[in-house]
Design goal:
This protein has 189 residues and is mostly helical. It is built from 9 helices and no strands. Helix 5 runs antiparallel to helix 6 and helix 8 runs antiparallel to helix 9. The longest helix has 25 residues. It is globular and about 50 Å long.
Amino acid sequence: MPHPDLHRHPPATLRAVRERRPWLPPAAVGLVVVLGLAAAIGGGATLFWDRPVTDAFVSLRSPGVDRFALWVSRLGSTPVVLAAGAALVAVAARRCRSVALVMAVTLLARPPVEWLLKELVERPRPNGARLVDGTGFSYPSGHVLAAAATWGFVPVIAALYTRRRWLWWSLSGLTWTLIALVAWSRVWL
């Protein structure tokens, strides 16, 4: 018996998460809000772990890991997410215009939402031995938001093209690993 259409019956949905673990979505939103408020208070002075994490990462740096972090960080950079986003919207539009529209709106809304949040929080970039220059405020991370808003659609689009659950779960795992690596790379750099 063939597997159901993953687009219409995805293996994981927000509704299923809310039914199984109703505390998880509000906890995730709450965590973002609490971290945003902590970053806004005294320029992030309440984020007591920032300095030890930065110092630990700086002490662990090596040329090979630094190059890897730079490469991974590019997956959240504007040129890459613009090109990948346009390609993913085009691929989605072949099978489902609604998914393509939601992705396009998400991609277009991300920069102004990011700017607004940065202006509200006003978290300065952490001091330390930076490997890349940065401009503007640091919270939320533009690279991580861009990666999530772009690469986060890969499982949704994959569901339009496959009924293989193992493939969908594999792509989902790879997608969220990539987004987590972009977040790691921004702290490392």
